Amino acid sequence: MIGLLASVKSDIGRMREINEDSYAFHPPYLFAVADGMGGHAAGEVASGLAIRALLEKVEAGYGKIPLQNLMEDAISHANELIYQVSLSKPEYLGMGTTLTAVYVEADTVYWSHVGDSRLYLFQKDNMLQITSDHSLVWELFLNGNITRDEMQTHPQRNMLTRAVGTSSDIKIDSGVFQWKPGDHLLLCTDGLTNMLSEQDILQILAVNSVAVEGQKVVDNLIDKANEAGGMDNITAIWLQYGDV
Predict the structure, then answer these.
(1) How far is Cα 106 from Cα 25, in angstroms, rounded to an integer?
(2) Residue 221 to residue 206: CA distance in whole angstroms
(3) What is the pLDDT of residues 2-24, one digit of tens each?
(4) Nearest to residue 15, comparing CAs of 237, 225, 236?
């Protein structure tokens, strides 16, 4: 029987005092990661609000409007909520979060995204980044000013150009694609991708039985990111489309 296998792990890392990442893990359809930013604990508030708003909006709107529109509406709703809360207390002013979400319907994946968390599609030995980072270093990379490897160590790698909740207006990236049995998806915050290159990730996956041990995959990814320094919170969701 063809179905969806899913695994998740979130870790504080080795340098942070609190985990400001949040995630949605609702098999068999909705998954998301959010990486909060702001003053003390404000990032944790922002990412938590984003995930709750996403879940509430998708649950309330499912079947009423096309899924792609629903995903975008959910992130817009999260943006409005976080922005209004950020104005309610001085310590919340300017808080925001990344938000990368997928809704899976059999062989169809709907996605929406803001920030520099990422969605990857794995097909055999190929690793394709579906989302684009909304960050200064991504723009420098696209303009040819730095290499992809240099993005990981650039001093301004954490500077976002777009985030959920930092202003009343928001631009959302979204799309839809087909996947097939044997394919995998990875949603992750930049605590993973700032510590591990894509080649590192592929090497880690190569030593795992990814068709069976999805939890081992996310455990090993986070362990390796911590071994590389664990400079930030780390969250990873691993999805497999195949026999269950």
Answers:
(1) 17
(2) 12
(3) 689 999 999 999 999 999 999 99
(4) 225
CB-based burial, 205-219: b 16+ in 10 Å, e otherwise: beebebeeebeebbb
The b-or-e profile of 59-68 (16+ CB within 10 A means b, else e) is eebeeeeebe
> Sheet harboring 2-11: ordered strands across?
2-11, 234-243, 184-188, 118-123, 126-129
Query: Per-residue pLDDT tens for 60-106?
Result: 999 999 999 999 999 999 999 999 999 999 999 999 999 999 999 99
Of the candidates 74, 106, 72, the one whose C-alpha atom is nearest the C-alpha of residue 174 is: 72
Pairing of strands 126-129, 173-178: unpaired
Chain-centre distance of CA 233, in angstroms?
12
Helix 42-61 to helix 67-86 angle (10° resolution) is 150
String of DSSP letters for 39-103: STTHHHHHHHHHHHHHHHHHHHHTTTS-HHHHHHHHHHHHHHHHHHHHTTSGGGTT-EE-EEEEE
